[in-house]
Amino acid sequence: MDVDVAPASSAPPLVRAPLQWQNRFSRLGGAFYARIAPQPLPAPYWVARSTRLGETLGLPPHWLASEEALAVFAGNAPLAGSAPLASVYGGHQFGHWAGQLGDGRAILLGEVLTPSGEGMELQLKGSGLTPFSRMGDGRAVLRSSIREFLASEAMHALGVPTTRALCIVGSPAPVLRETVETAAVVTRAAPSFLRFGHFEYFAWRGKTEELRALLDYAVTHFYPECERQDVAETACTLLAAVTERTAELLAHWQAVGFCHGVMNTDNMSLLGLTLDYGPFAFLDAFEPGHICNHTDVYGRYAFDRQPEVARWNLYCLAEALLPLIGEPERAVQALTPYPRRFAAAFEARMRAKLGLTDAQPSDGILIDDVLALLVRERVDYTIFWRRLSQHIAGDALAPVRDLFLDRLAFDTWMLRYSERLSSISRRQSAALMLKTNPKYILRKHLAEEVIRAASASDFAPLARLQTVLESPFDEHPGCESLADFPPDWAAQLQLSCSS
């Protein structure tokens, strides 16, 4: 692969930032990527920044707000020490093999070593055409960039493993989607952007040597505990570790009410991170069959199907590793713990939502029954759990009870729940619940409102929403409207793969 794009003779000078680069992925060689520089974005302007992530990376707020930083994260100026590239991968999309994919509108600037000693890759999404853009234009739009920025930082604040977002740079440059929109670039960060699809690509092409190199890279840098003397055993151990992380991630998604929307294998992180925020959503009313992506006409990625889809995707990863593992039975054995690990992780998270500091055999029934009640009554998922938390902390029960039309059914469940709590410190339960059940989530209508304001060059609502999402368990006086029920018009919002 190793396509090099020479800089123009009038290229801007290098920008220096307080970053220490190590760029380990680029050492894999040209079969894994194409070297390419970001394409300049005309008339760039700041839309949003995460000073919290900036501090994690070692970037002081004054630099992150500078004109130099604006030029770098617009793709208009090269960053000293970076090694820009677009990686190649494949993947199954909506259950079908899609062949070669790759970073079609994302360019990896490189990997930095943070002050804490952790490696973090920085990637510009929407930075122009790459050799893997296929029929796309290589750009992202303001709408989707705002959604990804807010979702990344909101999920991080909720404790869900995720890629992060450093900033958004906007531009008046037109981009054609369903309508003409304006361009934007979001800077993403993650320990690694390795996907299941990276392994699928080389397996699909019969490139066993490159597959082995990718395995060695993943194990050496991210799963050192999986290294074994035997290659097949190393691959099996890695597969088992990825299976565990994926099960934990999906349990977290289901517990917090998060719908990904496009769980293709090229959107599955090898590190068990939430990757690629396209048509995602947090549940309003608790509806297990909710489909957040209107492109998903058959509901393959409906909310309640996510755990099983993740398992299917793990089988695709196992198939990609078979040239190294050899025996299919060994790969299947590595995947076997998934259902048990997911169920245990999900029940543990639901116990925490209920403030249960110990485990009892009957807890599963208590959890199933309250979820069934939420489904039958179409109760708002986030508001129910937060009001229940506040009741356990000392507030009246009425605000919780008022969420249900069938008061008798709720009272019956509440009596059982109260009996279960009787042997637990009320203070401990309340403390656990208030740090587990958020008051603020990124609802569709909230994202839509800040997108509309930002499209009119008003970024204050975006900054306000970002502030509450960065600490979603706190109260934030004056921001109660951001935690209220969604308006009726929110039900009409539709999201697709277009971005």
Automatic annotation (TrEMBL):
Domain of life the protein comes from: Bacteria
Annotated Mg(2+) binding sites: 267, 276
MF annotations from Gene Ontology: AMPylase activity; ATP binding; magnesium ion binding; manganese ion binding
Names of required cofactors: Mg(2+); Mn(2+)
Binding site for ATP: 102, 104-105, 125, 137-138, 188, 195, 276
Transmembrane helix listed as a keyword: no
Keywords carried by this UniProt record: ATP-binding, Magnesium, Manganese, Metal-binding, Nucleotide-binding, Nucleotidyltransferase, Transferase
Positions of the catalytic residues: 266
Annotated EC: 2.7.7.-, 2.7.7.108
InterPro entries registered for this protein in UniProt: SelO (IPR003846)
Uppermost EC category: transferase
Catalytic activity: L-seryl-[protein] + UTP = O-(5'-uridylyl)-L-seryl-[protein] + diphosphate; L-tyrosyl-[protein] + ATP = O-(5'-adenylyl)-L-tyrosyl-[protein] + diphosphate; L-histidyl-[protein] + UTP = N(tele)-(5'-uridylyl)-L-histidyl-[protein] + diphosphate; L-seryl-[protein] + ATP = 3-O-(5'-adenylyl)-L-seryl-[protein] + diphosphate
Family classification: Belongs to the SELO family.
Function: Nucleotidyltransferase involved in the post-translational modification of proteins. It can catalyze the addition of adenosine monophosphate (AMP) or uridine monophosphate (UMP) to a protein, resulting in modifications known as AMPylation and UMPylation.
PANTHER family xref list: PROTEIN ADENYLYLTRANSFERASE SELO, MITOCHONDRIAL (PTHR32057:SF14)
Protein name, entry field: Protein nucleotidyltransferase YdiU
